[in-house]
Amino acid sequence: MLDQIKGLHHVTSMADDAHTNNHFFTNMLGLRRVKKTVNFDSPDVYHLYYGDEIGTPGTVMTYFPFPQMPRGRAGTGEVGTTVFSVPEGSLGFWQNRLVRLAVGGLKETEVFGEKRLNFAGPDGDGLALVEVKDDPRKPWTEGGVSEDHAIRGFHSVAMRLRDEGGTAELLKFMGFEELDRKDGVTRLIMPGGNGASLVDLETLPNISRAAQGAGSVHHVAFAVDNREKQLEVRKALMDTGYHVTPVIDRDYFWAIYFRTPGGVLFEIATNEPGFDRDEDVAHLGEALKVPQQHRHLRPILESNLQKLET
Length: 310
Known about the structure:
Layout: E1 8-15, H1 18-28, E2 32-38, E3 46-51, E4 60-65, E5 78-87, H2 91-100, E6 107-111, E7 114-120, E8 126-132, E9 153-161, H3 165-173, E10 177-182, E11 185-189, E12 198-203, E13 217-224, H4 227-240, E14 248-249, E15 253-259, E16 265-273, H5 298-304
Parallel strand pairs: 1-4, 5-8, 9-12, 13-16
Antiparallel strand pairs: 1-13, 2-3, 3-4, 5-9, 6-7, 7-8, 10-11, 11-12, 14-15, 15-16
């Protein structure tokens, strides 16, 4: 069993409209846009990152907004719900706020004894807030939501699977432990993790496979401290039979990717070097940052990419 992984690092999804996506996560959910860059493989498309003040691993939701992208179709083989941690007693505030802002899909539930508010992102994204007592992570409070209510970071992700067996075995190999089972859902936890330490596996054997599109999670990333730990994880996964990509420099972290038995794309990302490697913390996410291999395209990108509010 591995001991290098610390919990979730980031979740990357797809969207239709960059302006709508940016407005939703910054003005409505109160997160900070910590980086405005472009997709490494499709530089005509933004890659937007939202999180706490510095984009701490375990807080960062990222998006590829592809203009006029069709909606995804929910199903198995994907992350169905991305869940954020908020302070105990704050769901009433969020219920009122999201109703006032005309956010869809609002539904109060209780999962494993935790109060939860489910809601939909602008592309039908499956999102939720869960009350967590004494989450020590410091929130971003300059996005219009006070510290008493602000999002702390990720609480968990929930994966929809036809059969949980292979994915559960993989997560346990990665260092997760089974915490609970209820109503067809298995909850796993990363002991001593970074606060974004839970993964729920929903077994749905009669549901068709998901089709990715706007509102779909593209991949979920797990955190390791540094490149040395990442290489240890890569070797262990490959020795176990997984096909893992070479290490890829994503400017703000190094990444490796592999496909899980349940079909979900996993990434292992380093906590280094961080989002302040090319911007002062006070100005994170303000300027367009272009990867080295695409810098010759900057004039075109600046002319063609949709303008976003700061």
